[in-house]
Amino acid sequence: MRHKKAVTFRQTTRPRKTHRALWTASMLALACLWLPYRAPARQIQFELVLAGGRVIDPASGLDSVRNVGVSGGTIRAISAARLSGLKTIDVSGLVVAPGFIDLHSHGQDPENYAAKAMDGVTTALELEIGASDVDAWYAERSGKSLINYGVSVGQVPLRIDLMHDPGGFLPTGDAAHKPATADEVARLRAGIERGLKRGALAVGFGIAYTPAASHWEIEEMFRAAAVYGASCHVHMRYAGGKEPETSIAALEEVIADSAMTGAPLHVVHISSMGLRDTGRLLQIIAEARSHGIDITTECYPYTAAMTSLGSALFDEGWQERLGIGYHELQWVETGERLTAETFLRLRRMPGSVILHLIPEEVVRVAVSSPLTMIASDGVLSGGKGHPRSSGSYCRVLGRYVREEKALTLIEALKKMTIMPAERLQRRAPMMKKKGRIEIGADADITIFDPGTVSDRATYDKPADYSIGIKYVLVGGTAVVFDGKLRSDVMPGAAIRAPIE
Ligand SMILES: [Zn+2]
């Protein structure tokens, strides 16, 4: 085979002169292609020009003052020369970056989209838990969304439906605690395949919330994902370091699933799973990647997690597993810290707790690792929730980039833009036009003041919007203008894989 290929190559190789002529010709052709964008840019009138900003595009490494021309929802010009626009916004002194892409956003309604936009997010995706009925999920948001939205098909909601679990977002009954029969595993797998045929972006897993799901059941879901080239976004089986149910063992399980089946793997909120072993989990991910496993991960920049108190996470033994006690739990509705008595009473009620369990140095390790994307895992409901919903992106830019210098600005932006776009673009080609400031890319653009950008949301006031985000464009339409939210526009579009 090798010999044959070499011969073919020699036969098709042209003499040197022809080669050079061809090269020159193709360079000329390329130059001509560039001309419409470069030379006459002054004559073209764009719908909108962003003038004089510091354009940072982590995909290409560009970090320079440029003018950006936008028409028809698309970036049409990026130029050091002046551009003419029907409308021009002076963005000098501000950073012009690709709109942020959140791969893990449970909040998928107007309240949450508003908070996300003010935090610089132009695309918010629910990929961890996902939906069981993908068509219905997209239909609910069509034409009514401030920012772009999308969903995975989820093993958790499929299990909830199949086993008629009484829980809401997360299971509290059979879906958590009953092993599936062979027939039920087949029906779950069929549900995953149905969702993927309907354009679900990925496959979602909350294994810690369905502890009765066998290793074989999870493998079957990975096999279905592999057929459709869908990444598996996994909340792993275990957190913490108590053997044998450690976050390391949990990571080994899903790396094995990915290696066996070929389905890409994305491990969600690495720091709240790894806790003090987070550095080791990151090392394992780097090692698996170096041997060709397609595995990525994400984190949020906070020392607390949040989840339903009724979920399987708080089954017998949780204190030992997570290394915390009642006092580290904070009831979201009232902000009160729990006791043994209130824990028992509130566990029977619907509602969430904030878990103060991640050491600050672990957060810094996760945020600054080149392996992690930033993803919020957030959801607000009536102004209540975890500050990560409203503040994740600006907290990284303000606290970890500007104040602590734990990473550079372009490194941070990479985690918010091109990395999440690339995670999804093989399955969803429309993501090739997101996460970039380049000609032909969608005009999803976030413009902020690097000197003031900061989160303001706290555990007491989780819905307080971030500051320093000056303009946010979604498909060329401003949803944040001069630092103020616009609620009279709905440019958000569905982010979806091709429907079969
Ligand atoms: Zn989770």
Tell me the layout of helices and strands:
Elements: H1 2-12, H2 16-38, E1 45-57, E2 62-71, E3 74-79, E4 84-90, E5 95-98, E6 100-102, H3 110-118, E7 121-131, H4 134-141, E8 148-154, H5 155-162, H6 174-177, H7 182-197, E9 203-206, H8 215-227, E10 232-235, H9 247-261, E11 265-267, H10 270-274, H11 278-290, E12 295-299, E13 304-308, H12 318-322, E14 329-331, H13 340-346, E15 352-356, H14 360-368, E16 372-374, E17 380-381, E18 384-385, H15 388-403, H16 409-416, H17 418-424, E19 445-448, E20 469-474, E21 477-481, E22 484-485
Parallel strand pairs: 1-4, 1-5, 6-7, 7-8, 8-9, 9-10, 10-11, 11-12, 12-16
Antiparallel strand pairs: 1-2, 2-3, 5-19, 13-15, 14-15, 17-18, 19-20, 20-21, 21-22
The backbone outline, from C-alpha atoms, is globular
Average pLDDT reading: 93
Strand percentage, roughly?
15-25%
Radius of gyration: 24 Å
How many extended strands?
22
How many angstroms does the end-to-end distance come to?
A: 37 Å
How would you sum up the major sheet? 9 strands, mixed
Contiguous uncertain segments of 5+ residues: 1-18, 31-39
